[in-house]
Amino acid sequence: MSDLNDYLVRSAAAISAMVERDLTGEMEQAASAVVTALSSGKALLIAGNGGSASDAIHIAGELVGRFLKERKAYNVIALPANAAVLTAWGNDYGFDTVFSRQVEAHGAAGGVLLAISTSGNSPSILAAAEQARRMDMTVIGMTGDTGGKLKPLSDILLNVPSTSTPIIQQGHLCLYHHLCEVVEARLSNG
Asked: pTM of the predicted model, to two decimals?
């Protein structure tokens, strides 16, 4: 176990590594895809497990509610938030397809799936990405360093250069807060 300052130094090093990796181009593509989808009435669907499920709900809260500006609500659905679907479908058919089933229900060509997995290897996230691709949706993968199996299923990959789950999640927070800020600014001014 590390002390607080050591942990903060490791966290800061991961953020610095993200700056060096320079995800500016990928973030621009992600923001453009989300803005285009939402502007045309398509949904942004977000999937994640565990802490990433909480991140999915957090992002939806920022975009359905508000991030920094007073404006209309955006069509954003956090797939982990529907307990009835998760438990009914998971019980009857297995957990690996709880998100792909919801992508089938709520997704459409031109929509976006933000698939969050620190390892990039979560079966339920991979199945959701595969379903989204079958439906001609844009898949934005948000992962750790290598992207895992989600990398080839992603049209856009936002990968944090770390293998530590909590550090990756901290990087994801930076990425999705920036994404929310850009999306909100563009849609509010457009």
From this structure: 0.96
